[in-house]
Design brief:
Length: about 90
């Protein structure tokens, strides 16, 4: 039971790092973006005034990856316990 809880917690932490890492990279890229306006004078378009940060995709994708990573982490924890001799 302990290895199941450990694998779920590790999977949760890995997913949090992935989601917040993706958002941090997007934020940094947005803050450092410098548009080239010289070429844009001839092409008149309305510019977007808002930026959205987030993840686009199916929520089921995260459920399946969460379960998959938890199973993988559980396999590693159990294998490590058998190799080292822990119970």
């Amino acid at each position: 039971m302990k290895s199941i809880i450990q694998s779920l917690v590790i999977s949760f932490v890995i997913h949090l790092v992935y989601i917040f890492g993706t958002m941090a990279v997007g934020y940094i890229k947005t803050m450092n973006y410098k548009p080239v306006m010289e070429k844009k004078w001839g092409n008149i378009e309305t510019l977007q005034s808002e930026v959205a940060f987030g993840v686009l995709g199916s929520p089921l994708f995260f459920v399946f990856t969460f379960i998959g990573v938890a199973l993988f982490c559980g396999l590693i924890i159990i294998s490590y316990g058998k190799i080292v001799g822990l119970k």
